[in-house]
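May I ask for a protein sequence together with how it folds?
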Amino acid sequence: GTPLFPFGHGLSYTSFALALRRPNGTDVAVEDPQSPLEVVAAVRNTGPVPGDEVVMVFWEKVWVPDGVGRGVQWPLKQLMAFHRVTVGPGEEKEVPLDLELEELAVTDARGTKAVLPGTYRVLVGRGSHIEAEFRLTIPGLPTVVMHNALGP
């Protein structure tokens, strides 16, 4: 059925705003898929009382080269990282998130789990509210994370 509330929905006695500090720009190219990507979000409490907010990072596939990713059931959107932060009224806090690109790995029909080259959309938001995004490009060949991921 249809969900009553979107993923990450929550109520608060205060309000928040989010801005993406890093990476700079809307297009990011990865040199080494085995190194984490630093994302920094700034969360500002725009309300009258202290409160907690959860910064969430999701990914979506945009494009992969022909012949790459055959037999993969791509998720529509997948949670990649999250961090809860307490922010006082009028205060702003930077929330660092080191994104392990292994979180982009998908498993094919043979059970090989790999990070595939291509372009991905990275979405940063507060629960169900996406407030910033950038495109992430991973060049080269697939980076195998695990063989026989479906086996015993």
Remarks:
- The domain at 16-146 is CATH 2.60.40.10 (Immunoglobulin-like).
